[in-house]
Amino acid sequence: EAPTAALPLLQGEPAQTPVDALTGVGARRAAALRDAGVTTVADLLTRLPRRYIDRSRIVTIASAPVGEVVTFIGSVQKAAPAPSYRRGRRSPPHSVELADDSGRLRCVWFQGARYHTFEAGEVLAVSGRVELFRGQRQMVHPEYEHLSGGGGDELLHTGTVVPLYGSSEDLRERGLQSRGLRRLVRDALSRFSAAVVTQLPAG
């Protein structure tokens, strides 16, 4: 008896919709995704993360324990301009000071510093490992997302269990590392979840 052909995990509209129908996917991103085997929305939704990281522990700054990965929500107190890019030279570190009702903590970026721009008064959700440097607590290269400050924000990169996706060099150059892929998956789920028809057996 001939083996049964493998069935796609998803059918219906997601399997028929090209991935460039999603917000933020232009020609170059679509080409990078196709090279990675992602041509449809169904391909994107069935691309498994390589692992998950738990960023669901939300604490105040004062109670954030040194050496552990936590998430806190604070407002920007001091925000120096991001260092300018100098070809062939290493950019200086970029830091921002955040505060909540319990205390203050510094966040530092040593790589890609010019991409991290903030303004005083902005509210951020920040996830990372708390470290001690010269007697002061800080986070190095934390994940963060901007919040409205109204309390109704849905966290994607922080404050939850976060998927980490494998990413090729081409995908990373197109801004489609884990952070970018999480945005695409959220967009796909918000638009197509009602149309997902699975091939999984009942029961």
Structure description:
There is one protein chain. With 203 residues, the chain is α+β, with helices and mostly antiparallel strands. 19% of the residues lie in helices and 29% in strands. It has helices at 13-16, 27-35, 41-45, 169-173, 178-192, and strands spanning 10-11, 51-54, 69-79, 94-100, 103-109, 123-133, 136-140, 143-147, 161-164, 197-198. A five-stranded mixed barrel has the order 3-4-5-7-6. Strands 1-10 form a two-stranded antiparallel ribbon. The longest helix has 15 residues, at 178-192.
The number of helical elements comes to: 5
Strand residue content: 25-35%
Largest sheet: 5 strands, mixed, barrel
**How much helicity do the residues have?**
10-25%
H/E topology pattern: EHHHEEEEEEEEHHE
Which of globular, elongated, flat, extended, rod-shaped describes the shape?
Answer: globular
Number of strands: 10
Quickly give the structural class. alpha+beta
Poorly predicted regions: 1-7
What gap, in angstroms, lies between the N and C termini? 26 Å
Rounded average pLDDT: 82
Set down the secondary structure blueprint.
Elements: E1 10-11, H1 13-16, H2 27-35, H3 41-45, E2 51-54, E3 69-79, E4 94-100, E5 103-109, E6 123-133, E7 136-140, E8 143-147, E9 161-164, H4 169-173, H5 178-192, E10 197-198
Parallel strand pairs: 5-7
Antiparallel strand pairs: 1-10, 2-9, 3-4, 3-6, 4-5, 6-7, 6-8
